[in-house]
Amino acid sequence: MSVQAMSWAIEVGCPNSSAKLVLMCLANYADRKGYAYPGQKSLAKDSGLGVRTVQRTLDALVEAGLISKNHRQRDNGSRTSDEYFLNLKSNTPNLHDGPQSNTSLTTIQPATVTGPNIEPSVEPSDKNTPLTPQADCSDEIQSALKAWNDLAEEHDLPRVQKLTATRQRSLKRRLKDCGGLPGWLAACAMVAESPGLLGDNNRGWKIKFDFMISESGFTKIMEGNYKNWGKTNGKQSDLDDFKQWAAESLDQH
Fold first, then answer.
1. pLDDT tens digits, 125-176
2. Rounded to whole angstroms, how far apart are CA atoms 252 and 250?
């Protein structure tokens, strides 16, 4: 693994959370010059994504100008893993989905504490309004929050506007649970792959940041409990929907 490649993959802007995750997996295989030769099945295993999702994501990374890809063949003419080149000099991806938002510049505003154990509500605000950074917020926390807000913007989920001490402690625990930022990005990618978590359920419920950083919610996501939720006729059964509502309610108390 090239430290330079991994550092670049963590910092560079990506089209979405799945692209960020796959790019980091590629960086894990890259040499000092930015070349990597993993198979797509290996990338799928490392990222927790399906092979087809990995293929689409690699195409998106090529289109964004972050990587280039060359097909390779063995001497007998059979296919082998592709050659990937990470464009380590690239700082701004070529996104073609319209003007870029200021998400990449977004930082987190500290909460104003008016009393013990008071949690501020998460209010939607103008996506282009920059937020004030929290002084004691680590780079890993900021990167994790940015990954969530990128996911939220892409799938119309509530974005994080304030980071309370309670939220920060919970996020630190989840990062520790999943082995750091790569594990968090894997969880974000799994959320993006679950229609039920994105609102395709009988109540129109959508995942929120506080559910994501709760111990039980995060564990269920990482264990793949929501992988097929919402994929059967676009709806979940009433019984399963009730179980989800009950779990959410318990997590909030």
1. 444 444 444 545 788 898 888 889 888 988 899 999 999 999 999 999 999 9
2. 5
Sheet of strand 79-86, all strands in order from the earlier edge strand to the far edge: 35-36, 79-86, 67-73
58, 23 Cβ separation under 8 angstroms: no
Q: Which two tokens stand for residue 45?
A: 């295993």
Q: Is the pTM of this model over 0.70?
A: no
Residues 6+ apart with CB under 8 A from 188: 17, 21, 147, 148, 151
Q: Residue 250: what residue type? A: L
Domain architecture of the chain: domains with CATH: 3-86 (1.10.10.10), 120-126+134-251 (no CATH)
At 29-68, the pLDDT tens digits run: 999 889 999 999 999 888 888 889 999 999 999 999 999 9
Measured at the CA of 193, the angle between CA 58 and CA 212, to 5 degrees, comes to 120
Q: Where are the beta strands (DSSP E) in the chain?
A: 35-36, 67-73, 79-86, 109-110, 162-163
Amino acid at 206: K
Which positions ≥6 away from 182 have C-beta within 8 Å?
21, 24, 25
Going by DSSP bridges, is the β-strand pair 79-86/35-36 parallel, antiparallel, or unpaired? antiparallel
Q: Which distant-in-sequence residues (6+ apart) come within 8 Å of 186 by Cβ?
A: 21, 47, 48, 178, 222
